[in-house]
Amino acid sequence: MHPEHAMFADVNQLLLRRPYLRLSDIPLLRAVMRSSSNARKQRVHVLRQAAQSARAFDQSLAAFKSADFVNVTLALASNPLGDVLTSKAAMTLLFHLTSSENPRALALHVSKHSSFLVSWIRQQVALEANALVEASSRAKLESDAVSSAAGGVALLMQPALAALGNLTALMRVVLRAIANYPLSVLSDGTALHDRFWVVQSATQVSAPGQTVAIGVVQQILAALAASLKLLGGGNTVSVEFAKCTLILIRICADSARLLSDMQAGASDQQPPVLQAPKIAQQALLALRVLEPTIGGITAAYDLRYDPCSADSVARAQFSESLFCNDVVVECQDSDQASKLHACYRLCTDSLLEWCLSAPWATCDSRSSIDIASRAVVAGARGATRAAAWIREAQEACVSKDECALNDKLQVLALSH
Fold this sequence. Notes:
By secondary structure, the chain is mainly alpha-helical. The protein has helices spanning 8-17, 29-34, 39-53, 61-66, 69-77, 84-97, 103-109, 116-143, 152-156, 158-180, 208-231, 239-266, 277-294, 310-315, 335-357, 365-378, 383-398, 402-415, and strands at 301-305, 328-331. It has a two-stranded antiparallel ribbon.
């Protein structure tokens, strides 16, 4: 640490004043919270260092609990007067709290008796969703007076892209919590209590985590549909914005699928909250606005790396992956166009997998057919089975035989 660093004096005094450091304490945390001089830089530095050290949260549980670090950090990040760096520290902390390597952190902060973490995420999603819609509205109103050749439209879309990135990071945390929660065990070998995520019996009315997660998915998809409707496609929607939107839709679909799989593995109950038709409808509304741009892409490519898959998000070890909105492709033509098409194919593939794992998740046959047909056109992994099913499902749709349609969906799910 250089002498000109904002924390040099504090760290130097701490080391000279104490012959040893307590392992059950976070050094300087309380001091910077009470400090009035240069408080912002000091606070951000300590929060960032402590959030990064939460990678080994279970091994430092006493220190984090004694300092009430999680609640303090999330409270500071949700403060309207807070800054971007504090929010980044909070997201880094959440990333490590939802890791499969910290099962005690999951047990402490994601449970029926301690739902502060998911409640905080729901609050932040509501704020960022409103920010996305407002930024999109302003960008559309001002885009007509700005020259797109001068890069003015891209500049106007920056606030919307920032809100989109924050929503993606928050949704990744939700997906990590859902994916890693049932896989984690406590230090004594006992499994975590999973009534927070699944309805286990007819006497259990609902699962709090399941309800919050589906509500967050619906709110994000509704914001995306409203934002794209305001933008209206065309030159206002950049390739970067379209790519980030597709990645976020995919993460929402993967989260809904994981919840459906978790519920199916726990009991035969089908909670009404999982039978949310708006998820498919809102995802399709967003896709329809983007498809005129995506439809003109014919570049051949080979997908090399997909950091946005459910498995990659759940297993990621570095917090920087929270804000990764890209895929790695090998192509001969436009790199950005190929990445956009790859994101569209992966997005439709996730929507198709979700429909296959939960045939009752879409409210009408038309939504199911629309999702399956897009997967076929995009060349998704389940495209062959989806094409065969579409021909049979259309007959059921014409005859208004919803029972037959649901049966065909179930058969397709079993063969997936």
